[in-house]
From TrEMBL:
<keyword id="KW-0472">Membrane</keyword>
<dbReference type="GO" id="GO:0008237">
    <property type="term" value="F:metallopeptidase activity"/>
</dbReference>
<feature type="region of interest" description="Disordered">
    <location>
        <begin position="182"/>
        <end position="209"/>
    </location>
</feature>
<protein>
    <submittedName>
        <fullName>Peptidase zinc-dependent</fullName>
    </submittedName>
</protein>
<keyword id="KW-0812">Transmembrane</keyword>
<dbReference type="InterPro" id="IPR024079">
    <property type="entry name" value="MetalloPept_cat_dom_sf"/>
</dbReference>
<keyword id="KW-1133">Transmembrane helix</keyword>
<feature type="transmembrane region" description="Helical">
    <location>
        <begin position="301"/>
        <end position="321"/>
    </location>
</feature>
<feature type="transmembrane region" description="Helical">
    <location>
        <begin position="262"/>
        <end position="289"/>
    </location>
</feature>
<feature type="transmembrane region" description="Helical">
    <location>
        <begin position="218"/>
        <end position="241"/>
    </location>
</feature>
Amino acid sequence: MTVFPHGNTPRTVVIPVGDPSPAACEEVAKALRETFEFPVPIRDSIGAPPRTDSNAHVGRGFLEYLRGETPDADLAVGVTDERIKMSRDQTALFGVAGEFDRVGVVSTARLLEGREPTALERERLAKEARSVVGTMLGLRTYLHTRREDRPCVVAPGETRRQLDSAPTTYCEDCRNALTDDATYPKPPAPGDWTVRTRAESDASGPEADGDRRTWVDYLLAPIGFAVIAVIEFVALSGPVVDRLPRPGTGSARDLPESAHEIYRAVTFWANAVLYLGSAFCWLFVTVSVHDRIFGPDLSDGVAIGLLLLSVALGVFTAWFVKGIVGGLRFVAAEEWS
């Protein structure tokens, strides 16, 4: 489906700011033309914004300057060879854009080694152009605010390795938001070309109102109830605990057989949960680290290696926890005696 099925498209321009590579400007414009299927002219170059001690290389001032230079454009993408930051102590960015705004800028400072981009550098420019315009249209805010969101060109990362491993186009969620009749970018009202929020769309289900909860969120309420139940149980079991034999005053063998059966069952399942839970937690951690460094693709050998590593770390962690619990039991026995 086309991104603008209603036929009304935003007036979009690419504008060189300062003295960027003409080939870089053409690559940015070409990427936008191919992605959104509307004309994207390249305007005459404008001078870089004047630098002062307060706004040198700061993205917000750059965007404000670009906004003032392109009053007749619905979407304006500047291309510059200046280094762009959002704060003075931040690493230079590949590009910045105003979210739900009509201006953005692609910086070639970290994307190009020379004036003529290589094939890899052209791909990087195209990705960053799609990321900048996707942010302007609202895709990053609506669909990519969590780290576990699916890989997408609208959120390619801040390092060249992350940029190179990012997809070359928008993910399925972004594509649906751009093309679905309920959410595609609407004509300015007033002056904003952005996808509609999910709360405004006609989609049904939990995703319709922007409720993008993860399994962790759904666990919070049961965990809270469990904590309250444990507190209540401890309070109610106080009189019973006081009647149990202490070291030096009695023996656990004096307890009925049913108590021993319960103890053995609880011990078995506690150990099972401890070992399996530890291994699962380490598996989650190792897979997450691998995703952030090498990407989501796992070969069979790497998957088996991560599983074995997680099991080994899980066993060690379980032993460590049991050692702590054993130490606490020893201290309690000393106190009781």
